[in-house]
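User: Please predict structures.

Assistant: First:
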Amino acid sequence: MAEGAGIGRITVRGAKTGETSGLFGAKAARAAVMCLLLAAVAAFLAVYDPHDPPEGAVRLDRVEEVTFVAEDTGAVVARMDDVTLPQDWRIDVPVSDEAPLGLVEGHYRLAFRPPGDMTEPLALLIPRVARTVAVSLNGVPFFDQNDLSADTRWAWYDPTLVPVPKGLLAPDENRLDIVVFGSFRSTAGLSRLILGERKAVERLYRRLSFLQKPLPIFANLASLVMAVPLFLIWLHGRGARGGPFGAYGILAAAVAIYSVRSMHVYVGEAPLPMSVWLPLVSASLGWAASLFSVFLLRFVNASSPVVERGIAIFIVAGTALQFGFPDGPFMQARTLYWYVPVMLLGTSCVAVFCYRTLVEPDRDRVVVALSLLLLVPAPVHDLLWLRGFLPFGSLLWLPLVVPAVLLAVSTVSANRFARDWVAADALNRNLTRRVREAEEEIRSSYEARLEAERREATAEERSSLIEDLHDGVGNRLSILLATLQTRTIPKAQSIRSLRESLNDLRMVITARDTGTLGDGLGELSALQSGLLETGGIELVTEIEPRAAALRLGPRRLLNLLRIAQEAISNAARHGAAGTIGLTCRLRDGDRLVIEVQDDGGKEKGAAGDAALSSGRGLSTMRSRALRLGGELAVEPSRDGWRVRLDIPVRDMDERPAASSRHGPASTTSTGRDRSQPEAAPAALRSGGSGLGL
C-alpha cells in the first residue's frame, strides 16, 4: 500500500484471469449499494414535507385576489384573481415597468371557516414569507412586522407564527388580509398558511424553526470548529514535501468559507453595499465548492496540476463577472449561469471520488463516499426551488446537508490523521523504549569492557614496569651482587654501579611521569651528571619547540631515552670527546630525528668500540629502534662519530604540554651534581650552560 501526494491510499492489486469476474462482481455490488442509497435520499427529499398540518388544523392555499402595489407611488402594478398558494414572485408575477427594482406590497385576501372548536385559542403559521408581513382579520389589523427590528424583518427564511385574537374570529365566514413586502427581483412570495389550535401549531412552528434556523447554524458552527484542527495540521506540516498536509489546508479553507458564507441568511442588514454584498455571497459558494472539489480529487489521488488550474480559472472568471457587473445579466441570472455550473463541477468530482472508491475501496473512502451521495440530490432540490419548479415554502436542504457532509468529511480526515498520529506515537514510544534498553545494554557493556580494559591496562602496565625494572635496575643489581659474591671490588666501582642502577630507576620513573619529550630529555641530562662530571665533558642540547612538545607513551619514551642514554654513555666512556651534542628536531613534519654527536675523532667516538666491534650496546640500541618503528644509524662525522635515530611521529600527540618545564632554546651543560635536581631544567629554561651531572 503506497501513499500518494494526496491523503488517499492507492492499493495495487494483482488479479488473475479467473478472478476478473469476481472483481467486477464486487464493483457492481458496491455500485448498486451507492445507487440505492442515492435513490433513497432523493426520494426522501422529494416526499418528506415538514409542513404537514397537525390534526385539527387546516391549510389555507386559495386566495381570492392578489393586488401588487408599488410602495413608493401607491400605484397598482399587477392584479391576479383566484391564486393558489404558494406563490413565488420571481415566477408567478409579471415584472411591471412601474416598479422594476423597487419595493412592492402584495395584498392577499383569503376567506376561511374556523377549524374545530372555537373555545381553544388559534394561531396562524406562515412557513415562509418574503421580508415582512402584516395581517388583518375581518378588517382589524393585529400583526405587523414593520414594527419589528431590522434583524427580524430580513429573516425571510424563518417561519412566522401569528396568534389569532379570539374576539376577532367569526363562527362562520372570516376574511384574512395579508400584506407582503418585498421585491419582484428578490426571493419574495408567500407559502401556504396553516390555521389551527395554537398548541399544535406552535409545535409545528418550533419544528420548522429548528430545521430552518438553529440546526443550520449549529451545523455550520460545528463545521467551522472542525476546520480549526485541519488548519493546524496544515500549518505544522506545510513544510513537508509530498505529504498530505496541503489537502488538509484546502479542506479547512473550503469548510471555513462555506460555514461563514452560510451565515449570510441570518444577517439582519447587509454590512456592505449591495453591489459588493450580493456578488460576495454568490461567489463565495463557488470558492468553497471549488476548494472542496480539489480536496476530493486529492483524497483519491485523481487530481493533477492541469485539472486544478482549470478549476481555478473557472472560479476566478465567474467571480470577476459578478464583481465586475453586479447589476448585469450574469448576476441577475446567476442561478443558471453560476450556481448550475458550480453544481456540475461538484457533482463531477463527487462522481470521480465514488468511482475511485468503487475501484480501490477503503474504510475512510467508503464513509466519505456515502456522505457525499447526499450532496447530489440536495443541491438539485434547492436549484429546482430557485428556478421555481418547487413550491415557495419548500424546506431548503442545502443549508442542512452541506454542513453535515463537511463535518463528516472533516471528521474522517481528522480521524485518519489522529489514527496515524497515534500509531506514530506508539511506534515512537516503542522505539524510544528500545533505544533506552539498547543504550542501557551498551552502557553496561561499555562499563564492563572499560573495567576489563582497565584491568588489562593495569596488568600490562605492571608487567611493563616489572620488565623495565628487570632489564635495567634488576640486571645491574644482579651483576653487582654476583660480582660482590665472587670477589672484592673497589669502593668507587661499587658506588658507580649503584649510581647507575639508581639512575636507571629514575629513568623508568621519568618515562612514566614526564609529560613531553623535552621534559624527558631534560631529565636524561640530569641523570648523566656523574659520568659527564668525571670526564669533564660538556653536553650541548638543542631541541626544536615542536619536537620538545611531543607526547609519547611511557614505553616509547623509555626506549627513546635509553637509546640516547646509551649513545651518550658510549661517547663518554669510549671516546676522547670534549663536547657531546644532543639534537632533537622534526623532519618533514612527520619524522623525529635525534642525533648524538661527539668530537673525539673518527677512531674513537660516539660509538666507541661498539661501532667497530658491534658489541652488545649497539645491538640493544638497534633493537629498541625497531620497537619504535624507526631506524638507527652509526656513522662517522667531520670530527667524530654520530648516532642518528629516525622514527615516525604519526602515532604521537603533537599538542604542546602546558606543564612543560623546558625551553625551546639551545642549551649547553657542564658537569653538575644530581643532588641539585632542578639544575638541568633551570639551565634549559634560562638557556645557560649545561645538563651537568
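Second:
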Amino acid sequence: MLKMAGFLLLLVGPAVGAVEGEVSYPAHPNVVDVTRPPYRAKGDGVTDDTAALQLALNENVGRGRVLYFPAGTYLVSDTLTWPKQWKGRDNWGFTTLQGQSAAKSILRLKDATFTDPAKPRSVMWCGGFGSADWFHNYVQGLTFSVGKSNPGAIGLQFYSNNSGAVRDCEIVSEDGQGVVGLDLAHRDMNGPLLVRRVGVKGFRRGISTARAVNGQTFEHVTLSGQTEFGFENEGQAVSVRGLVSDNAVPAVRSYGTLCLIDSKLTGRDGAGKLPAVLNYNGGRVHLRDVVTAGYGRALADVATPDSGAAYRVEGVDKPGSAGPTVAEYFSHPATSPFGSAAASLRLPVEETPEFPPDDPKTWAVVDAFGADPTGTRDSTAAIQKALDSGAGTVFFPGNYAISKTLTVGGKVRRVLGTGGWVDYTTKVKPDFRVAAGKAEVVTFEHFADIKGGIENPTDRTLVLRSIGTRLASKGKGKLFLEDVAGDELAVKNQRVFARQLNIENQGTHLLNDGGDVWVLGYKTERGGTLLDTRNGGKSEVLGGFSYTTTAGKLAPMFVNSKSSVFAFFGEVCYSGDPFATLVSESQGAATKAVKKGEGGTWPYVGGPRVP
C-alpha cells in the first residue's frame, strides 16, 4: 500500500407493458423467448425443460443475442451448459440471459438429482475457454434454485472476461444443502466481471472465487444460511462493497487481495467465538466501515488453513481488527513518498442512476427505421432517424456499420443493445456525440464494443453500463461507469463513479485532471501509467490489480501531481517485465518516487505479488 499526500497504494414475443422491477423487450429475432418455437420450454414447474433450454443455449450462445425467460418455473434435471462450439462455429461469449424478474423467472433443479457432494454439478455452467477470451456475458433477473435433497449441487458457475455480470439474481437451496451458490472459482482466469444485487441462501459456501487473475467486483450482495463460509476467496483480487451476511459461520475467508467496505456482517447461533472475516496465508486486506455483530471479533488476520478444522488462529491479531466496527484497517503498512497518513480519501459515493424502464411499445427499434442488424450496410441515416424519433429508449438489437457521428439528444435517455457492436472497423470517431436534451441522464448499455467511442461535451450525466468503448468526456456532468472495458479514459473537473473498470491500452490508462474519481475494482493490462492525477484532483482506487503484460519498466504505475490519491492495488506479471516505479509524486517543487520493493511494497519475484 502506498500513500502520497494523499496517495495510498496499499426474447421473441409480443411486448408486454413495462413494470418497475421487471424486464421485457420488443419482438426481434435477436431476443429469443425460450417458451416460444422452436424451443417451447413450458416453465410450469412440472415439465422437464432441460432439453428445450439446452437447445436454446446451443443455438444462441456467442451470437450477441438475449435469451429471455418469461415468468415461470423451469424444471431441469441436468447441467445446462454454454457450448464452446456448436455446429462448427466457435463461441467467444457475447451472451445474455435475462429473466422477467428474479421473483418470477426461476430455474429449479429437480429434487434428489445431484446427490454426490464429492462430484458436484451445477444447474448452469457458463462456459469459457480456460483463457481470458470469453467476453461480455450476462445472467440477469433469474433465480437459480437447487431444490431439495441435492447436496452435490452448485447453483451457477459463471465465467466472463473484460466485461460481464451477474445482476439482480437469487441463488437458493430450499433445504440449505449444496456445495456453492455462485461459483466463480471453477476455472482459471475468470474476470474481470461484476456481481451486483445478488442474494445467496444456503449451501456450504455462498460465493467462491479463486486464482490470481483477473479480478472480480461485488456490490450489494446478501448471504445467509451457509454452513462453512459466506464468501470464500482463494487468491483473487476481490473488491466488495455493501456485503450483508447473516450466518452462524464466518462471513468471509480470504487470501490474495480483499477490499471490503460499507458492509454489515451478523453472526447467529454458534458464531460467538468466531471471527467475521478470516485472512490467511499472508493475504492483503483493506477493511473500511465494516460493522459486525454476534462474532467474537471482526477480523482474524493470522488465520491459516488446517486439515482438522476450517482454520486455526496463530499469533496475535493486529491493532484495529477486533471490532465490532472497523472504521479502517490495513493488514500491511502503507507506503508514501511524502509520509502521508495511512487512510483512504473517503470520496462520496453515489449509486449508478436507474429509472423504471420505458414500455417496449414506445421504444425506437433502429431496424424499424431501416438499419441493418448484420452490420453489412451503412445504417447511419436510419439510426439517426430512430434517435430523433422522440423515443426515450432506442434499441440496437444487432451489429451496425456507420459512416458519420450520431447525435444523441432530444428525449433519448437510454441507448440499449443486446451485446453487439457499432462501427466495427472504426470508420468514425466518435460514433456517438451526446447533445443537449430533455433527460438529465443518458445511459448507454449492453454493447460489446462501440469502436469509435462516445463523446459527451455537455453537462448531462452520462452512464455507461456493460459496454466496451473509448470515451471522450469533455463536459462537466457526472460520469458513471459500471462494468466498462476499453482504452484510455481522460476526465477533467468531473465526478466519476466506476464499478468494475477494465482499461487495457498501452500508455496512460486513466487521466484525472482536477476531478474526483472513485473506482471500485480497477483491472488493467499492458504498460504505461495506470492513473495520472493532476491539478488538485482526487482519485480513490478500492481494489484491483495490474496484469502487466508489456513495458512495465517504461512508466510509473501511478503519477500524482499536486493532488490526492489513494490506491489499494496490486500487480500480477508473468512476462518478467513488471512495473519498476510504482509511484511518482510531485508536491510543491519536490518530486519523489517509490520503486518496487521499497517501503511496504513487495519486490517482484515471479507470479502474483501485491504492492
